[in-house]
Amino acid sequence: MNMGFNLPQTTMLCAVNLFDQAGQLTEAYQLVNEVPHNLLGACRVHQNVELGEIAANNLLRLEPNLASHYIPLANIYPSAGLWEKAVEVRENMMRKEVRKEPGCSWIEFGDGVHRFTAGDESLPHGEQLLNFLEILLEKLKKEGYVHETCVLRAILMRRKRKTLCVVTARD
Question: Which residues form a coiled coil (predicted)?
C-alpha cells in the first residue's frame, strides 16, 4: 500500500518510533503535533490556500484559542487576493477573544540595542533607525531577498502618508 510518504515524513515516523521505544511518549506527541503547524507555515510561504485551510482547521480543532493557528491562515489569504477571508479570520479571533502578543525585534543601532514592535514610533533615534531600515531593505532586495510579511512596508507606507499629509497641509 502506497502511503504517499516522502523522506521527511518517513524520518519523522522513525523519530516517533524511537521516542516510543525509549518510552518518551510526550516527546513523540509533541513531534506529531508540530507537523500541522509546520504545514500551515509552509502553506503560507508557498501560498497554498487549500492545504493551509485544512492544516489550520485541524489545529483549531485541537487548540481553538491559540493565535498562532489563526495568524498564518490570515496571512495566506491576502497573498491569494482573498482579503475578505483574511478579515473573517481576524473577526473570528476577536469574537473568540483570541489575541496575538505583538512580536518584537531588536536592533543594534547608535548607542545600544533597541527593542521595537510594528508601529512603534517612540524609539530613540526613530527617524534615523527607519532610514537605516529602508537602506537595509533596499540592499536586501538588490541581493534577491523577498520579505515574507508586509510589516516593514506598512511602516514605510504610513511614514510616506504622513509626509504627504505634511506637504499637502503646507500647500
Answer: none
